[in-house]
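2024-03-11 09:14:02 INFO receiving multi-entity request
2024-03-11 09:14:02 INFO entity count = two
2024-03-11 09:14:03 INFO echoing inputs for audit
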Amino acid sequence: MAAEEGTAPTRIMVAVNESTLKGYPHASISSRGAFDWTLTKIVRTNTSDFKLLLLHVQVPDEDGFDDVDSIFASPEDFRTVQRRDKTRGLHLLEYFVNHCHEIGVACEAWIKIGDPKEVICHEVNRVQPDFLVVGSRGLGPFQKVFVGTVSEFCVKHADCPVMAIKRHASQTPQDPVDD
Amino acid sequence: MAAEEGTAPTRIMVAVNESTLKGYPHASISSRGAFDWTLTKIVRTNTSDFKLLLLHVQVPDEDGFDDVDSIFASPEDFRTVQRRDKTRGLHLLEYFVNHCHEIGVACEAWIKIGDPKEVICHEVNRVQPDFLVVGSRGLGPFQKVFVGTVSEFCVKHADCPVMAIKRHASQTPQDPVDD
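2024-03-11 09:21:47 INFO inference complete, emitting structure
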């Protein structure tokens, strides 16, 4: 029943995002928690039997709020903004890829743009991981109404088993939205 | 980040139940699926790093339907029924414990009586596994109204990460309730 040596590795998709408090390139507490949990509880010492698929979904800055103090004088300025956003996402992924490399577990990391919950489920369909791990901020019912939770949506709609990892109580910031 | 050799094993609780179609001692398709999935995708060859906690919750036969043809002539007859029910549950657990033993993964198995979804969440609180794996019959929204799903309840209420494993489409009986 247990897998034989030499069989295909278990492919675990881990969705990661930036800290809402500190911004890029810092990973959110909950995505670092989900990542650490996967390594400590699942991969453990068996690094050759797993492959991590690290997905970061960037939310498009539709209202241009991040760029409110920027000056746009040429088409090149807009390309600079696009490059900067992309670079921020890459630095976020770098953190996770570096850790995988140190431990010796295979990984792939990529960025998509869109609504995180929709894009994660879409990527699950495309990539077909064995399961998905998402961090959860552990919001109460009142906060959920305003913030929504990506993890709940994925548990319902992703086409693979989903593990939602709540943060330790000790890791929860005073306002759980500041993750 | 990855666990060192010699650290405590990852404790995985797997909830198992009998087949609704074939009855005891046969395991339901979905609990065999959840068990096999755990071994193939998580434990793999790393048997010494995991311990399986196998919980079977027996539903009390409150309306005595199973015993409609039995004749009760003495207190001993009632004790016989209790023993028979217990024995049925033990034979179910034997299937899973035997498999663990063959593979060489540590396990503990036990029986509780009550409402499966409530008891599973209660046992999670008591035993504090690293995560819970439950099979899911993949019922449609219409069937759920009547049958309810243990897995959905556990995902919401169990105090640990929960992995709900749906059956393969090929394993689904014509009527998914016949699991």
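2024-03-11 09:21:48 INFO post-check: The longest strand of chain A covers residues 50-58.
2024-03-11 09:21:48 INFO post-check: Chain A is about 40% helix and 25% strand.
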